[in-house]
TrEMBL record:
Name the record gives this protein: ABC transporter related protein
Gene name for this UniProt entry: potA
UniProt GO BP: quaternary ammonium group transport
Alphabetized Gene3D superfamilies for the sequence: P-loop containing nucleotide triphosphate hydrolases
Domain ABC transporter: from-to ranges: 4-234
Organism listed in the record: Tistrella mobilis (strain KA081020-065)
A Pfam short name: TOBE_2
Length: 358
């Protein structure tokens, strides 16, 4: 187990900086997710931590010890690659034993530790099989066992679930998370999937073109995104043009489509270029008659489109001023969606927030 510090790191490929002076701290025992779109530098950060590439500037430390110049095989990292990278001609047992043999661990210890690890990943009966005779999910668990068996200081997972179908990936999410908690190992998980990042992580680092946009807990990054980029990347958000009349402490008074609306200021100051971020579940349609008296955070709207999603219905609306708003209405308990074209009153949660437009 170890805290990981990345300090002011620059990484270049062929002279071109891909990471330019970035820092992050990954707490001891944390499940830390690096999230971002394709090409933003996620794998580059992982390779930097693993020691597969050296920074042009800056420092990487495990548990306070500088490892910047330490080669990969001396860093004590267990890594699961996106394509698993199993040895095709070696049995499951030998794949998992690989790191122990490289460390000259005695044979009797190898048998015991590989056996225990295969049991933990629920592959006890598969020791003699070749990787080609396994399903995708089983191969993934072999790769995980191979990374864990060396009892690494740090576990690095590069999109390990993206090759699995959706149902299997969902099951593997809790499996990976349970194992990580058992071992208590500091884990860096890379994904482009915002939902996986929100459900699995203690902390999330959102990247934007090689830079760190925001590091926060899943709840914080979802509800208090630092920028319109962060708001948009993490879940569906309405990002509306709005005029804040005044910001007092944490409350911003705004005007939207002629109505008064209170929102969380989210660190925004008067004069900042901002948008109002309303998550799809932070707006609801009031029962007919319930919104007749008007009042704060209530807006008149017209229903433009309904989309049935199974557990919920997405309702698209046009506000009086012309802006579009989308919300999610759970189905069940006799909930009925309004008719397209009908006039409704929408209530906006005061928990919605301003975000800087960047
Ligand atoms: N060996 C290399 N030589 C030159 N450029 C590279 C090299 N590896 C990566 N890059 C570039 O560096 C940038 C970051 O790449 P990286 O692989 O870290 O992205 P990523 O976030 O992991 O993307 P993905 O989600 O597609 O795996 C990209 O623009 C990529 O084209
Ligand atoms: Mg990658």
């Amino acid at each position: 187990m170890a805290r990981i510090d990345i300090d002011d790191v620059v990484v270049t490929y062929g002279g071109r900086p891909v990471i330019d002076g970035q820092s992050m701290t990954i707490p001891d025992g944390c499940f830390f997710t690096i999230l971002g779109p394709s090409g933003c530098g996620k794998t580059t950060f992982l390779r930097l931590i693993a020691g597969f590439l050296a920074p042009a500037r800056g420092r990487v430390a495990f548990a306070g010890r500088d490892v910047t110049r330490l080669p990969a095989h001396r860093r004590d990292c267990g890594m699961v690659f996106q394509d698993y990278a199993l040895f095709p001609d070696r049995s499951v047992f030998e794949n998992v034993a690989y790191g122990l043999r490289a460390r000259h661990v005695p044979e009797s210890d190898i048998r015991r530790r590989v056996g225990a690890c295969l049991e933990r990943v629920e592959l006890a009966g598969f020791a003699d099989r070749l990787p080609a005779a396994l399903s995708g999910g089983q191969r993934q668990r072999v790769a995980l066992a191979r990374a864990l068996v060396i009892e690494p200081l740090v576990l690095l997972l590069d999109e390990p679930l993206s090759a699995l179908d959706a149902r299997l990936a969902a099951g593997m999410q809790s499996f990976v998370r349970d194992i990580q908690r058992d071992y208590g190992v500091t884990t860096v998980f890379v994904t482009h999937d915002q939902r996986m990042a929100l459900t699995m992580s203690d902390r999330v680092a959102l990247l934007r073109a090689g830079g760190v946009e925001q590091i926060a807990s899943p709840r914080e990054i979802y509800h208090r995104p630092r920028s319109t980029y962060a708001a948009d990347f993490l879940g569906a958000a309405n990002l509306l043009a709005v005029d804040p009349d005044g910001i007092r402490g944490e409350v911003a008074q705004c005007r939207l489509s002629g109505a008064r609306l209170a929102a969380h200021a989210n660190g925004c100051r008067p004069g900042d270029a901002v948008r109002l971020c309303i998550r799809e579940e932070e707006a609801r349609i009031l029962a007919p008659g319930a919104g007749d008296q008007g009042g704060d955070n209530r807006l008149a709207a017209t229903v433009t489109r309904l989309t049935f999603l199974g557990e919920a219905t997405r309702v698209e609306l046009r506000l009086q001023g012309g802006a579009a708003l989308r919300l999610i209405q759970p189905n069940g308990f006799g909930a009925t969606a309004p008719e397209p074209g009908s006039a409704v009153t929408v209530e906006i949660s005061p928990g919605c927030c301003l975000v800087r437009e960047v």
